[in-house]
């Protein structure tokens, strides 16, 4: 009796609603959701144990979600950041919400076959002030004077594994560099630390003698750390750090402009030059994703795709460093096509083209054997998402290309084949053997959700809501502290956009708060605001689309 009384009392709706372990084994109906133990266990006088394979692997999910929402709103209030509702009410026509009306790029020709790419630094010329994340004029003269020149940086910074000595710790560049090596690189990667970490291997280890890449990494580090809930070091002025980041961005963009002008001229540049240029461009793309700066991101992506296209015509095409960067570039392109923002760049399926040949899962029972070791996406699933993205993009921008019923049928058959394979595996009650399988399952159902939206399915239909439940089941099957859980941003967002159930919303907020603490490049705090705006719109009977969200 004392053991029973020691169990914390929970509200019944917040409990684990799956059948207990005994009822699940006996395949009997369980009523544990209405009491601390089910009637069948009480009748047989046995312990009623919650199922370890529960459909929802969370405890007190509603109260936890409410606590997280309250703490997040309190943090935004303390930081003088208004709530989503207040922002909508107080915005003026001169300052439109980012993404609500994106100003077109200064160039509109996205044909990658023609070599007619403007210099990269020109993207700043026609940007409206509200889309420029930081302005040099906002910096104080003292902050600008405190900027160190590239040549004045400590020589020890060439070592990517360096832990700074106290003598150089006050340097903002040293702080941002170590933040990238020690926090960002392991935080966003599946391999948390050591030489196996891809960002350390392909990015940090290349900065020696490459000021453009070093500058881009410092700029990326500031953009990412600004989004994370971790505190910036108190002994460094945040204004000075922001000033250093701006200077580093300008330095990297200037180098890219010069590199691209040489890249477009024969003879072809060396493999090292191509890889360095592409690495710097991917770093800048990641920084603009973190900032939510869509025009600069699109321009930077276009430049990177031009470098990739010309690289495949040279000897660098078989270099694993080059292929790794191209796969990452292809992934960003796929996600951008599936996004709601005005993305009209046309490009090949670089993710599949540069896929790791012969790579397979270490688990022989895994459903998906062709998983990318950094992005976690199966080649088959990546190809499916690319085909769906092109269909959605051509519908949005008919002038950029054409699609027909055969393309849609081809994509649907591929999707049905994967879904049937997953269903057949799980029909005997078996769990998917790996976290990567659960992640790719979530991506396939996310693709199905986007396809149903493309076909204008009723958002509240049974098929749409069951698809949302399938996505969240796959996300919940991966523990939140698992490295693979870092990848779940994309399915969590789309499930959040289309759900109205409080239990689902609480689960999504909880997982997003974990990601916001230091697991991805995107501004997850802004993503949470967008989802909450959608939920508020659902309550008011509204349905909004086209709001910018950060790319994963």
UniProtKB/TrEMBL annotation:
UniProt region (Disordered), positions on chain: 71-98
Localisation per UniProt entry: Nucleus
Domain of life according to the entry: Eukaryota
Zn(2)-C6 fungal-type domain mapped to chain residues: 19-48
PROSITE patterns: ZN2_CY6_FUNGAL_1, ZN2_CY6_FUNGAL_2
GO biological process, one term: positive regulation of transcription by RNA polymerase II
Example of a GO cellular component annotation carried by this entry: nucleus
A GO molecular-function descriptor: zinc ion binding
Composition-biased stretches (Polar residues): 79-93
Main location: nucleus
Name under which the protein is recorded: Fungal-specific transcription factor domain-containing protein
Keyword terms of this UniProt record: DNA-binding, Nucleus, Transcription, Transcription regulation
